[in-house]
Amino acid sequence: MKILLISGHGAGDVGAIGNGYKEADLTREVVNILAPKLRQYAEVDIYDQNRNAYADVCNGKIPVNFANYNYVFEVHFNAGGGKGTEIYVTREEKATSVEEKIMNKLSSFFTVRGVKRKNFAVINSVKKRGVSSALLETCFIDNANDVNIYQNNKEAICNAICEAIVEGFGLNGNTSNTLNIPNESITSDLQYKAHIQDIGWTYWINAGQISGTTGKSKRVEAIILQGKNGLDLKYRVHIQDIGWGNWVINGQVAGTTGQSRRIEAIEIKCNKMLEVQAHVQNIGWMPSSKGYTIKVGTEGKALRLEAFKIRVI
Predict the structure, then answer these.
(1) Residue whose C-alpha is closest to residue 17's, from 122, 147, 158
(2) What residues contact 113, with CB distance under 8 A and at least 6 apart?
(3) 100 contacts 144 by C-beta, under 8 angstroms
(4) Among residues 64, 47, 62, which one has the least CA distance to residue 10?
(5) CB 294 within 8 A of CB 268
């Protein structure tokens, strides 16, 4: 399958502005995060990000042949005082199962405004060439809560979009095997991922980034940490109704999946100094802890751990 990703606005058109961000910058960020994830399952091209696809369509100077693709996905951010995520297809689009999956996946982060129909210039131009297309309004750039959720969860949000497209087109019946392979493009000596309630496994991310969600009341159920270049890790988690699990090492799963059990705390031992911070139910971000042996989270309080971040000092 061949997919084209389009970043909305650009080439002098910043799009909507809100909360210190420009839409054209955020659309390019989403596409650049999403593209390598989708490339695990399909051939993916990115529309020239120095251009403005809308202007190109209006001027009849489109530098690509839309007919060469099976699906074209255009990314935008909304504005106008609302909140949440929505996605548009053309009035001529017969099926919306992929877009419905995208909305379902993104419901873990945003209020869902649904799948809508409107013949926006770019996706309409694509559809006239016989190719299915969609325009995603990721969230409202002028809504502080939406933007905060996006900034704190952008990797997981792009994971969700990727998974929806993969599942919707049946590109791979089970993405978990691929997702469990450490991402060699990540250069950090430490990368990690989490299994999250209603979302499943996230993708691998760099040290210092947030794994999990905030503001969505979702538990972290399992984690995997992976060190390289001499970074040795040993870790365990405190699990609902079980207590402390066994110690595991680099690349192994700590926690449970398929049992709906929350992680309440994490303990890590490392040969290099780490800084670890946890986001906990009813508490929020707890003070970070530094050291070679670190414990974050809570015990005996029945509070779910919702997100965490780790960095090498």
Answers:
(1) 147
(2) 82, 84, 85, 86, 137
(3) no
(4) 47
(5) yes
Which residue intervals of the chain are DSSP H helices? 23-38, 53-59, 97-106, 121-127, 144-169, 176-179
CB neighbours of 128 closer than 8 A, spacing ≥ 6? none
Non-local CB neighbours of 236 within 8 Å, separated by 6+ positions: 244, 245, 246, 247, 248, 254, 266, 267
Backbone angles phi, psi at 38, to 5 degrees: -70, -30
Task: For helices 23-38 and 144-169, give the axis angle rounded to 10 degrees.
Answer: 30
What is the DSSP secondary structure assignment for residue 68, as one 8-state letter?
Answer: G
Question: Is 67 in a helix, a strand, or coil?
Answer: helix
Helix (H/G/I), strand (E/B), else coil: 66: helix
DSSP-assigned letter for residue 207: T
- Bridge partners of 277, per DSSP, are 309
What are residue 92's phi and psi, to 5 degrees?
-85, -10
- Phi, then psi, of 18 in degrees rounded to 5: -170, 145
Alpha-carbon separation of residue 19 from 45, 102, 216, 303 (angstroms): 30, 25, 21, 32
Model pTM score: 0.58
pLDDT tens for residues 100-147?
999 999 999 999 999 999 999 999 999 999 899 999 999 999 999 999
pLDDT tens string 259-308 = 899 999 999 999 999 999 999 999 999 999 999 999 999 999 999 999 99
Please report how the helices 144-169 and 97-106 are oriented relative to each other, as an axis angle in degrees rounded to 10: 140
**For the chain, where do the domains classified as CATH 3.40.630.40 start and end?**
2-169
CB 28 within 8 A of CB 49: yes
Q: Which fold has domain 2-169?
A: Aminopeptidase (3.40.630)
Closest CA to 160 of 111, 212, 213, 101: 101
